[in-house]
Amino acid sequence: MITQSYLQTIRSDLLARVTGGDILLNGSVSVPINAVAISSHPIAGISNAIALQVSAQHVASVPVITNAKLRTSMGAVVAEKTATINMNGAQFVNLTFVVEVRGGV
Asked: Under a CB-based contact definition with an 8 Å cutoff, are residues 54 and 70 in contact?
């Protein structure tokens, strides 16, 4: 069983690692993270998960996002998502990356 105190430690660690990082879009365009926060909403079907809500500035050269990688300031990939997001002139987009926490033996 994963305790709430351990989940809080992981949340704090993830926020620290992602702050100052970037989002790599479609494998080629790096966009600095403007803001990151832990979602307070429960995630359906996952009991021990952390949802990071990340926002970055709009990039005009990326009209469609097909892949997004959340990276630390050192370039390590924290989470990845594949989707088709048509930007259609949007000024910004908020992405949510879900990280499941698992206990060890």
From this structure: yes
User: Which helix (H) or strand (E) covers residue 7, if one does?
Assistant: helix 4-18
**pLDDT tens by residue, the chain, 105 residues:** 678 788 888 888 888 999 899 999 999 999 999 888 887 666 666 667 777 888 887 777 888 899 999 999 899 999 999 989 888 776 667 788 888 777 655
User: Model-level pTM?
Assistant: 0.80
Q: Where are the domains of the chain?
A: 4-100
Contacts for 25 with CB less than 8 Å, ≥ 6 apart: 31, 59, 62, 65, 67, 68
Contact 11, 38 (CB under 8 A): yes
